[in-house]
Structure formats: structure tokens, C-alpha cells
Amino acid sequence: MDDDSRAALSNLHPVAGAGNLLPTTDEASSSTGRSVRIEWPTIDGPLGLSHEESLTYARRFFKLGFLFLPFLWAVSCFYFWPVLRHPHSHQSHPRLRRYLVGSAIGFLLFTTVLSSWALTFVVGGERLFGHVWGELVMYNVAEKYGLAGWI
Amino acid sequence: MEQNPRPKTILETCGEEIIRIVTPVSICMLLVVILVSVLNGGSSFDDGLSFATMATMAYSESSSNSIWDKLKGALLNSLVFVAVVTVATFLLVLLFYLNCTKFLKYYMGFSSLLVLGFMGGEIALFLIKVWSFPIDCFTFAVALYNFTVVGVMAVFMSKMAIFVTQAYLVVIGMLVAYWFTLLPEWTTWGLLVAMSLYDLAAVLLPGGPLRLLVELAMARDEDIPALVYEARPVISDAGLGDGVVRRRVWREGRGDLDEDQRLRSDIVSDSSLRTYGESGSERNIVDAEEGMALGEDSELAAPLIQHINIRMNSLDNAVSGENLALEGIGLGSSGAIKLGLGDFIFYSVLVGRAAMYDFMTVYACYLAVIAGLGITLMLLAFYRKALPALPFSVLLGVLFYLLTRLLLETFVVQCSINLLMF
């Protein structure tokens, strides 16, 4: 597409028939300042997944996250960060992106709800909850059920 | 017009690889030292665990015994422990020989579930108690559940984000190491020395279980399912003279590299073919980005060195399975350095025990462990086969601990008291 980036890539061998292999080294892209084409959908780059596998994994993460696993959604967004970050690239995957956006929204929602409850609990304390606070706080629960004595 | 990348100096390639293995080891040790200093309140008590675990089966130390009794007891405990570990390793070799890889993987996942869930939860509870952190039980339960499940997935699935997998392995190492520091003092030191001698024997002797395991894995060209920390491989720039493109290789199935497998291969500038092995036995089928023949230079840069997963079942009711991937350090089939999780654990136990005395011993032992690790890495570069990572570091560490505690401390303290130095 660009002569600059073409020139910068000329040290890499052209390969016949490799449609989506447009080697874009990070140095090249940052030096030219163009919009980065997503070569690799995962944050691990060449060590990560391929495009087809990414779809499977993203879908699996998205579905498993519904089992009260917002952290899994966060990990999924972290893992596929290049796709989330560059929506209009040459190789954007609309389907992959949909799962990622869903994961991101789910994570944000869940975290908001959970942290608002946690903060209410911490800040409100006894005044808000009365004696129930003492029954809900973790260190008392651990004492009551002897949870910390196993080790 | 070619870009000429600056040729990488040895500092960048070699140094980078070493740093990528020393950093997680140091982080694990640091975390254990922090845990030990926060949770043990600075008083080094010799009584340790009050109930019987596998490590204290033979002898339960109490601070009132004489030194000779303690020594004998520690020796007995260590022998028992090493015996159990040997049996477990042979069992592992047998299972691997009978191709029960799936079972081993599931067991690995199960024991990381136990370590992360139960031990992680317990230690979190200890921390909450110590700091009186006003978290409620629902939030705690959700957080622990999330943490555990994602951790099991990271360990189980070989295709999770590398950073997440590495972080979880370090956390697992930290949790198990903390458990070990709860053992009585003499027993811990005896255990460390015994395990490093066992490591030496098991990896280098011809009949050693770990050597058998490595040879089996090499013969079958397979990965051992194990908790192994694999450092991210250092990727050097594409060579200019080769005209060969950098690509990635994943091994598909158990086959060798041939052209009609769907591969992407990574060729480093010295044009030796390096393949990236996987630390799990799940195979990924990589789509054919290009089908360039890689017939030439198909030497694998290093034989497939794998690391072992030792299952240890401690008998106490809390933890019923611990994975110690012991033995060592080796080269992944890419040249990326692999260090077993058991090494992380025992290094951290050493430093954690040193922390229970004083921070001076911590610094000395940390330097000793890192020096031992450096020596081991050098030997690894020399010999290019699986090496035991415990002996040098642990023996140096124990030596430095004794020297510091007995000699250096009196020296430093006397100097400080008399306002001479420090």
C-alpha cells in the first residue's frame, strides 16, 4: 500500500500466494507511522494464535465468561488487544471484534456492579448494615467456619 | 532499499534470554519473602506446622530438642520425602511410557486448581486477617473463583496469553514455596539439600527417572505435560543474507517437520531452523500461511528437553496434590529456556527461610541462588542437554546462609555497634 512500508519490508522474502501474510514488523510500522495492519490478532504476535483459531478462542472465552467470570473477559480483551485497538485495519475481523466488544462490555458492567457493592460494603460499614456487617465480612466468616486453619 | 538492522550484540541476545529467566525467578523469590515477612511477624519459630504432613512424617521437630536430635530428625524427614518423590517420579515415567498424557494433563489442571484455590484462598485469608481488610464474603468468593478458574485455564490450555500463563506459574510457585516455609527449620534445610542431591542424581545418572523421562520424550518427539516455565524466546531480526522469511512453527501432532504439514517456521538469522515447542500436549493446527519448503537446515537447534511434573501428595487435609515440576533447566526445542516449576519453588523456599531469620541472609542467599542459576545456564549453553537446576543454586545458597548467619552477622553487628562501619 505504501511505498515506505514496502521499502521497509523489502528485507523479507515475498512469498507466493500468501494472501494475508503481509509482514509488517513493528519497527517498520512505527517508523512509518502508518496505521498498523494487524498481522497477528493476539498480543503475543507471532507466538500467539492464527486468525482462525482466534475466532474459536474468542468465542469460547466470551461464552465461558457468562459463568460469573469477568476476569476471563478481561483476559480475552488483553489477549486480543490488537484487534480491539485497530478496528479499521486491513484485516479487521468483524466477527472476532464483536465477541471482544461483548467481552469488554461484560467485563465493565460486571466490574461496576461488583465494585459498587464492595465499596458500599467497605464505606458503609456498620452504620449502614448494622450487625449484618459483622456477619458478612470475610475475616469473621473465616473465623466462624474455621477456614483459615487448614494450612 | 534495505533496512540494515543493527546486528544484535551478544548482550542483547544472550543477556535478554538470561534476563527473561532470571526476572520471574526473582519475582517469585521477592513475593515469597514479602509473604513470609508479612505473615510470620518477624519471629522465627521453630515449631512450624503442628500437624503431620508428608514432609514431617518421620519426625516432628520441636524447639526443645537438642541439635543432634534435630539433625537426625531432619535427615530422616528428608529421606522420607526424597523417597516419596522418587516413587512419584517413577510413577510419572510409567504413566508417560503408557501414553496416559491426557490423564497427566488433567491431573496437572486439578492440582493447580487445588493450589490456586485452596492455598491461594488460605493465604489470602491470612493476609485479610493480618491487615483487617474489610472485604465481604461474596466479593471474596467471586474474586477467588475468578482467579482460580482463569489460572486453571492458563495452565491447562497451552494457548493462553503468554504473560498470563507465566504470571500464574509464578503465583503457583510462590504459593507452594510459602507452604514449604511453614515446615520446621531443620527439616526445611535438610529437605533442600536432599532435593538438590536427588535432582543431581535423577537427571544425570543413567537410571535416573528424570533422565528416562527426557529420553522417552525425545524418542517420541513429544512434550511432557508438566508445569514448566518457558521464557519467551528471543526473536532476532530476519537475516539479510538468507532471504528467508521469519515465520513461526508449531508442531502439529507428533510428526516431524515435513513440508506437507501445515507449518510456519521461524528461522533465526543464523539460519538454523528453530521450532517452538509447546509446553502442553495440546497441538495446534496452524493454517498454512505459506508452504515454503524448509528442507534445508532442519536441525533442531536443541533437542527437545522437557521437564517433569512431580506429583506430591501431602497428607494433610488441606492440600492433596502439589505439582512440583522439578528438574531442571533445559532448552525448549526453540532455544527458549525452560525452567521447571520445582526449581522456582525450591529457590523461593531457600530465600523464604532465609527471610525468616533476617534480611541480611536474604540478600546473601538471593545472590547465591542467582549465581548458581547463572552457572547452570552457562553449563546449559555448553552441554545442550537437560541439566538439574537445583544443585548449584541450593548448595551455594545453603553455604551462604550458614556463612552469613554464623560469621557475617556478628561481624556486621559488632562493627555497627561500635560505629565503625555500616
UniProtKB/TrEMBL annotation, chain A:
InterPro entries: Gamma_Secretase_Asp_P_PEN2 (IPR019379). The chain crosses the membrane at residues 61-81, 101-123. Belongs to the PEN-2 family. It comes from the Eukaryota. Keywords: Membrane, Notch signaling pathway, Transmembrane, Transmembrane helix. It comes from Salvia splendens (Scarlet sage). The keyword NADP does not apply. One of its GO terms (cellular component) is gamma-secretase complex. It is a multi-pass membrane protein. This is Gamma-secretase subunit PEN-2. Pfam families: PEN-2.
